[in-house]
């Protein structure tokens, strides 16, 4: 079976019923991998695909929301964002300014501004549910895939949470 959608085209399911779509999208000077997946195509609605297409086509706005959500957690000493920033500050030490794309003197803000959006994964079968519909993965160093922040979005484009990968 297959599902046809205006944005994603023909989404064919594999032998196990799962669907998968992947493409690279430009966001400024970044190349972001966007994956859409669902373990069973029968759990994917046209509304879910429309919501997914809206997130992909508005990736610049979604990225902005994600970064604002991260900034909102900087003052919480127990947040994953604060722990991530402290870890990056410890790792790079005096070399941190060389890694950052913008140095304003406010290290948490500078780290968040300098994060690279690596990927957006859309879990199409989670449309309208309480689990994340889309997960954006951010890294300061694209080669350090273990040290990332994940920003989870609901299908309506609101930020649900910001977590670390561990």
Task: Tell me what the structure shows.
The chain contains 5 helices and 8 strands. By secondary structure, the protein is of the alpha+beta class. A 6-stranded mixed sheet has the order 3-4-5-6-7-8, covered by helices on one side. Helix 3 (80-92) packs across helix 5 (107-114). The longest helix has 14 residues, at 59-72. The chain is elongated and about 55 Å long. The termini are far apart. The model has no long low-confidence stretch (mean pLDDT 93).
Task: Using brief descriptors, characterize the structure shown.
alpha+beta; 166 residues; six-stranded mixed beta sheet; 31% helix; elongated; two-stranded antiparallel sheet; 5 helices; 31% strand
Can you give the mean pLDDT?
93
For the largest beta-sheet, the strand count, sense and barrel status come to: 6 strands, mixed
Taking the alpha carbons of the first and last residues, their distance comes to 36 Å
Helix fraction, binned, reads 25-40%
Q: How many extended strands?
A: 8
Strand content: 25-35%
Oligomeric grouping of the chains:
single chain
In what order do the strands lie side by side in the largest sheet? 3-4-5-6-7-8
Q: How large is the count of helical segments? A: 5
State the shape: elongated
- Report the uncertain regions: none
Q: How large is the radius of gyration?
A: 17 Å
Query: Which class do the helix and strand fractions yield?
Result: alpha+beta
SSE order, one letter for each helix or strand: EEEEHHHHHEEEE
